[in-house]
Amino acid sequence: MKALEPIFQAYEEGYSALWVTGRSPFDLDVDSDGTLRPLLEGLRRTCREQGLLLLSYSMAAGLEWEQNDMADSNDRRTIETALRAHTLLDIPRDQNEVVRVIRGVASMARTPTKGLHWADGRDLKFAFLLEFAEHLVPGTLANGTQTDNQLVAIELAHIVAQSLALRNSQNLVIFHGRDGLLDDLVSSVLHRVRLPQPNLNNKQAFIAAAMALYREATFEEGLSPDAIAHLTANTPNRGLEARIRASHRNGRCVSASELAEQKNADVEELSEHTLTPLDTSRVNNLHLFGSNIEAPRRILERYALALERADASMPCNILLVGPPGTAKTDLALLVARKAKVSSYQLHSPKGSLVGETERKARLQQMALSEWWPCVGFVDEVTENLPLQRSEFDGDSGASRAVTAALLTALSDETRRGRTLIIGTSNCPWLLGEAMRSRFTIMPVLYPLAEDYPGIIAAITHRIAPHLEINLADERIVEAAQIFHNKAGSPRHIYSALSNAPSLHGPLSPETILSAARDHCATTDLCSVIYAELWAVKTCSFLSFFPWANNPKGYRFATHLEGIVNPDNGEIDREVLEKRIKEYKPHANV
């Protein structure tokens, strides 16, 4: 199996004690003969091809090997004699079993196998797979809290991993466990191998093999094998196989929605609930209208195309800043949609246990780096993630650990063209300078007065696609003026128009006007202006501003007058700082 190549590559390079993380040995894959098998069986077969007998151990299953499938009785006797010599045969099932097994493995793995041969004449060697290694040598326990058996198991694992005798014996010891959960004394001396989840090409091969096996399986219209591969890439195969097998047995079509549901569950489990897939279908046929939204939309569309072709010249972290309700989230989802890549919501990896936060933060960033190309999205970053350094230690350093992990991840230049993290914020002043400097900051300003009729038309088309809106209609013009006077954001307008049918009747110019009159203003204009001034202050490039190409033809809002030079678009920083101070006491963003 190609999925197992990293293990045998490490073995060929002389590494005899491995810590294998990532993909589960119980996941399914296509073997060299085209058959679907668990990775564990593929490992067993590949070991045999290299003269290794695989022995696996877990506390649940005990010590297992091919005793029932060993065709040659001479091979069976040779192996049983070797196991008996190291007390690995007929092990009592009691509280000391783990220590007995690891002690036996440590002894047997370091013993030269010279003189042991398979019946076909090849040298006989042993490979030991210790499954659920975090249960055997746990790293989540504070020193002094481990049981005597756990301490013995940890010490034995440490000794055998560093043994020159193990290297000389050409035997192989594999610890398989989750990231960051092995005792440091053990993990520090193991050579780490990570098995990635099946990517797009792997999925395509797996789907072809599965459909050849389950010939009666059917899929809903439009769900091609290629579409299935794109939808399920970078997630385990077992859930997908179960859906295809169920369709084969009961005749029900496999739908895109159930595959998406399966992917959601897989991603959340693999990332330990630090990532959630986002449904970009919400921006299907979305039209964002207005001068202030056009500039960021156009630039982000370029970045989406750059991400699609893995262009390393693009930024890898973007922060969309501006007042609430200006479609910042829609812009982020449009990037993923345009780039044809998966998008994931980032959640805070903060945990309650010592060391858990750091481990989950690393896991989150590792998953994003492995699942490229992709978009990682954080809505309201200042609320969901600790983005400012602090001396506060009331959570035992968890917040500082998340901040440190994010600073490291965001400054990783190898991510360029591979992953794009997009954050949104109404409050960029809450970001520490170190964090802010790692983002390319793009302003998303409140709509201009003359753009409100077009915004109403675009939102109406989304709610009632068959309704044609005449922008010159006096009722639409009046409704636009009312929404503008109430400082209604596009989000407010969408809320008002989507509720209009139940309150005022089917959408029409008349009911749109009634919805505008009915809408209660909930916007604090001072807060909007304050957030917009900060968006101007923190903007990374002048070309990001909506007036960049034609400052003389742009109608500046009153609060920007005197700040932006209408001749060249330059910012007067001194006036800007003064105006921010004027609005600060009145703002509540």
Identify low-pLDDT runs: 389-394
Shape: elongated
Q: Give the termini separation.
A: 55 Å
Classify the helix fraction into a percent range. Answer: 40-55%
> How many helix segments?
24
- Class of secondary structure makeup: alpha/beta
Oligomer: single chain
Number of separate strands: 14
The biggest beta sheet is recorded as: 6 strands, mixed
Q: In what range is the share of β-strand residues? A: 5-15%
Average pLDDT taken over every residue:
87
Biggest sheet: strand arrangement: 5-4-6-7-1-8
Tell me the Rg in angstroms: 30 Å
Describe the structure.
The radius of gyration is 30 Å and the shape is elongated. Helix content is 45%, strand content 11%. The longest helix has 18 residues, at 291-308. α15 (356-370) links the parallel β11 (342-346) and β12. It has 24 helices and 14 strands. The protein has helices spanning 5-12, 39-49, 73-85, 97-109, 133-136, 148-161, 164-169, 184-187, 200-213, 225-232, 238-250, 256-270, 291-308, 328-339, 356-370, 381-384, 398-410, 433-436, 452-463, 474-485, 490-504, 509-518, 525-538, 573-583; strands at residues 17-22, 28-30, 36-38, 52-58, 62-64, 125-130, 172-176, 191-195, 275-277, 317-321, 342-346, 374-378, 419-425, 440-443. Residues 389-394 have low confidence and may be disordered. A six-stranded mixed beta sheet has the order 5-4-6-7-1-8, with helices on both faces. The chain is an alpha/beta fold and 589 residues long.
